[in-house]
Queue: 4 jobs
Job 1
Amino acid sequence: MPSAASHPAYPAGLRLAGRKVVVLGGGQVAQRRLPALLTAGADVLLVSPTVTASVEAMATAGEIRWERRRYRAGDLEGAWYAIVATDDAEANTAASAEAEERRVWCVRSDDADAASAWTPATGHSAGVTVAVLTTEPAERDPRRTAAVRDSLVHALDEGRVAVPRQGNGETPRVALVGGGPGDPDLITVRGRRLLAEADVVVADRLGPRDLLAELPPHVEVIDAAKIPYGRAMAQEAINEALIAHAKAGKSVVRLKGGDPFVFGRGMEEAQALAEAGIPCTVVPGISSAVSVPAAVGIPVTHRGVAHEFTVVSGHVAPDDPRSLVDWQALARLRGTLVILMGVDKLGAIAEALVRHGRDPETPVALVQEGTTAAQRRVDARLATAAETARAHDVRPPAVIVVGAVAALDA
Ligand SMILES: C[S@@+](CC[C@H](N)C(=O)[O-])C[C@H]1O[C@@H](n2cnc3c(N)ncnc32)[C@H](O)[C@@H]1O
């Protein structure tokens, strides 16, 4: 056989679903490789006297079979692929020889030159798997392949490397993307990628507005707040705009603040699109309900202090017959109350909570424009929260946190 050392590896995508893969050794190498093997659907047999806690959890969950012993000849019978990564050099050499004998492709963590296969640095984005191999085995300098992989995945995430759409590109589609609370770094990777692929973006006032400036000039950005019609009709007009652009064959992103399904009217848009026969993808976002308190160091739960948190809309006053919120019940809860859209009605809300039994001295934090450059926090007590908010000119958008967590310090 010619020396393998002078030849580069031949790349191939192994389709391992239902096929036996043997992993020898249950340490860090196994822990790192197992998730991808499981994603590929491999039938994994792990042989090792000891394993890490994560590997043990996979065995307990029935995701892999674990034989609690050392390697012995014959272990590779019926295998298509093997990963040899024990801490016993002799066992590694013997297993590697068995793999060669049985024609089983075999990766070796201790001696890449002696192995018949190398593990590429892999990553996934935009429905693409990136696998990077160099002429040297990655095992020898994993940082090199990992760096190339990271650059490629990052470029795909941000849409800097184009992935042509499937089909003829004319299938209408809309993505309802949760943009997070405002900081452009707090959108999900998927959301950011869809934004980079969009032809039309319908954006809210809240959310990561800075990202819009990065869009290429051909992308049409529609400000949802400025869509004509009266206020009551605004949602209908937004729905119509989404449908019209999707039907024109455009890739449409509806960029919303926070999470689309947390006081975001996302479901109304999803329903309107479904009625029009347009497929819609929902991309969850980081809701301001949790992230804005976190941005100023307030945990919505804390062991021994608050074991529940309730998120409530404060846009309708408690005594308004249209209110769907049971403020009396909320006043009896001992955990954290997170109020969105509550600045205007804060006086009535605080009064109702106190009247129904919440301690007037309960700490309150008002966090305006959280995670943006204009973020500010004002602290108060429940009984005087509205007064304090007025004195400090707190304006929407703000998240109001009521509860002992608002007085915690790191
Ligand atoms: C219509 S709701 C939308 C909530 C959004 N879907 C979410 O999950 O965060 C708007 C309210 O969210 C809160 N909000 C959103 N972004 C915020 C931010 N960056 N800072 C403070 N409050 C914010 C405010 O209470 C605002 O009035």
Job 2
Amino acid sequence: MKTDSRFKTLIKSTNDVNFTLFGEIVTVPKGTTLAAAILSNFGEASRITETGALRTAFCMMGVCFDCLVEVDGNPNIQSCMVLVHDQMVVKRQIGLRSIGISKDD
Ligand code: FES
């Protein structure tokens, strides 16, 4: 179910960035943090915890870790701490990330 965001950006820019956010192409002004882009484009949670709880950006300053997303295949990225760039692919993070250790390690 898609929910409209209650957040709207007030910045108008001629220098925009296009990237893929949760499967949709999104355009935001250059210099926008990923968390701000998520909040201004989606009203849904940006991650789901291992217990199924919905989370999205809260503190916007790198403290709460509720804004974790997968960026370009890399999990556990704090969306409030990175700027959006062209061709970035952002996916919703679901559950815990894999730590990449096999039984042979
Ligand atoms: S919003 Fe709290 S760490 Fe990103």
Job 3
Amino acid sequence: MSTLPPCPKCNSEYTYEDGTQLICPECAHEWSATESADAGDDVKVIKDSVGNVLQDGDTITVIKDLKVKGSSLVVKVGTKVKGIRLVDGDHDIDCKIDGIGAMKLKSEFVRKV
Ligand SMILES: [Zn+2]
């Protein structure tokens, strides 16, 4: 059995291939098979300071002292942070640090445990 993607318009599972095109017999929608394959590349890979791929829920340690914006607090080197959440933006890690609270970190300043 082939595993063709469902129709992007009507979600029909009865799509079939015609050359490089995929065709839906139910709504007559046609689209390019290569286009839909490329769509998977949108997922952004976030890596730590040494190149480990980070995922939601990972535990990391901070590799340099980081000042907390708008306060006199500092996140010290070696601070362990559990259950990170990856987000879009300049600071790509959302997390909660004991004694400090919710804050955002840059992946280049952390290391996966
Ligand atoms: Zn369809």
Job 4
Amino acid sequence: MTVFAADYAGASVRPSPNHGERAGGRKPDMIILHYTGMGTADGALSWLCREESQVSSHYFVHEDGRVVQLVPEERRAWHAGKSSWAGETDINSCSIGIEIANPGHPGGLPDFPDKQIEAVAELCRDCGARWNIPPERVLGHSDVAPIRKVDPGENFPWEKLHAGEVGHWIDPTPISGGRFFQLGESGQPIEALQSMLSLYGYNIEITGIFCERTKGVVEAFQRHFRPQLVDGIADFSTIDTLHRLLKALPKYS
Ligand SMILES: [Zn+2]
């Protein structure tokens, strides 16, 4: 396997054979964050470097903050699978994938150490500056593959990343009472909710019916932006947080 020079000065290199050409010569304009979801970091890293796994990422961040590069940034790594964001369905061709060592949901959602999150933030700032990636296009795997994927999970500290000038974040509207929408309901407010989720980038059809897919997308949104309660119910806090995030996007302000 060809050894290559790290694109990020802070990374050591351990090449994975699992990569290809970015379709149409695309350049990365998104960063997708994952957790490994495995018991040990070394086990996860070995898996990403084995041909039989058919998966990889550009970067791997250990719990202690060490960064390893597996695939050159100009190549297409295989981390997102069947995914979609803002109409784009070949997420691997337009993203940089970062695997963050953490046992995830199977391991009871342990915290991400500060050193690790600082390392992820620095890596994202570096990639973001070199590829000119907008903050709102630093996303979780669950954002681009709702229902199918739940990483990096509701315990991932997006707020800390944002304090390190990475990603899009506003403090979620506090959970309170009031009108809410859930599975099985239909009508104009559901249509409005679906429209807002779609405008933000989520892959959702605007049908006016609160179906399983809608519930899954609401959960994905909550996991990232209103992590206190991930229940797939569009309560006032969820809808208001989404509305405020949309208003904070440069293209709509
Ligand atoms: Zn993932």
